[in-house]
Amino acid sequence: MATNERCLFCRIACGEITAKIVFEDDIVVAFNDINPQAPTHVLVVPRTHISTLDDLDEEEANVVGMTIVRASQIARNLQLNSEGYRLVVNHGEAAGQTVFHIHVHLLGGRNFGWPPG
Ligand code: AMP
Ligand code: ZN
After folding, report:
1. Can you name the CATH fold of 8-108?
2. Other Cβ atoms closer than 10 A to 5
3. Is residue 51 in contact with ligand 1, taking CB distance under 6 Å?
């Protein structure tokens, strides 16, 4: 499984850096965002190091698909599914990507505006 030893989220995924983990299996690790933007703000991170959405190919379809599946299951477990929640993936500078290991933000517990800021 591809990891990058200098990458923050790879280091969290292997336990080298501590995070408040809410779910993990062999495909993803999910933990609370250190700077939450909603009452629930979980990052769902594939264990495989993929820097950005621009690095995706069909080969990554399963891991990326499972990341969304896991995000939806975590949302259901946290009982966010009936009220509603938002999944966000930022790409690049304009969207505010700061960690270059792809991740899905699971945001819930408040109302969200549309269009997003
Ligand atoms: P993005 O801006 O989409 O790349 O999201 C990166 C997210 O990682 C931000 O919401 C940060 O608050 C979050 N973050 C950065 N460092 C940590 C950390 N050590 N533990 C948990 N979340 C982090
Ligand atoms: Zn990484």
Report:
1. HIT family, subunit A (3.30.428)
2. 9
3. no
